[in-house]
Description:
Chains A, B: This is Putative transcriptional regulator, AsnC family. By secondary structure, the first copy, chain A, is α+β, with helices and mostly antiparallel strands. Chain A contains 5 helices and 5 strands.
Amino acid sequence: MTLEGLDELDKKIIHELQTDARHTSSGTIADAADVSASTVRNRIQRLEQQGLISGYHADVEYESAGYQLYTLIICTAPVPRREELAEAALEVPGVVRVTEVMTGEENVHVSVVGADGDDLSRIGRDLDELGLEVADEDLIRNEHVDAFDGFDADCEDRS
Amino acid sequence: MTLEGLDELDKKIIHELQTDARHTSSGTIADAADVSASTVRNRIQRLEQQGLISGYHADVEYESAGYQLYTLIICTAPVPRREELAEAALEVPGVVRVTEVMTGEENVHVSVVGADGDDLSRIGRDLDELGLEVADEDLIRNEHVDAFDGFDADCEDRS
DNA sequence: TATGAAAGGTTGAACCC
DNA sequence: GGGTTCAACCTTTCATA
């Protein structure tokens, strides 16, 4: 079954780019899928234009870079302003991700990077000044990411 | 000031790769930094080997791909088993990110992708069977990511 | 560690089916 | 839609300082 017009080739492309966006060439995917490299290039271009792939980025280990305080700040926003505040939070220096959740009090989760307590104090203050109430603040011990297996053709069966 | 031996060139490289890991060539960075392309390539290789850059991946808009249920599942793990369970959770089909937080009851945050309620039920059951107690479950309305500005040479001043 | 040069792979664009 | 061609670009490898 294809979702939203995504066929197996699209899914394979997404899966490969999710796994390694920089060292995977169109030709490699093309060989594995038995199509030409330009077909893969056309598909990638389409996926980017449709916004299905919204970007590519390097995963950085902040601790190794000397930023010991990779931290999750959980905030509460008034629902009508949630989206606006989430976007504003992204502009605060040190903020690397903002997740808006639908329900509950703690509806904006902000991931931030800091080198010391002063950084965190400033970020907390900045968020507060925007109108985000800081409900909780926790050091992130570890973060693991993985490509979504739903796009992996070799892993279709899910109980 | 350089952190952990990272100089301005390293930081610039990381920033560029965080912004667009696929369409940024060594040559482009080299021109902007007034060094040779080979130097940039050597640095990138070093950053990858040191584990400072741990990977590159495509950002996928799951909703556009037909997976309407991009969801945050907040779990509680016994502290001694937290890391082990977090890694195990990553293997559950549909799980795309696991964040371990240091303190508090809700110390494992799991981001999952599902097409329907059945997917979510299964994922919840799988996490539970691992030994992760599901404390809360929330639809993710939106997720914004941004490159860390601490690596951006044009943005060093932070109040 | 930074640089430069040559060979081979990769990309994007225009074009054809 | 998919495929071909080709010029421009990129990367790899190795040699050099």
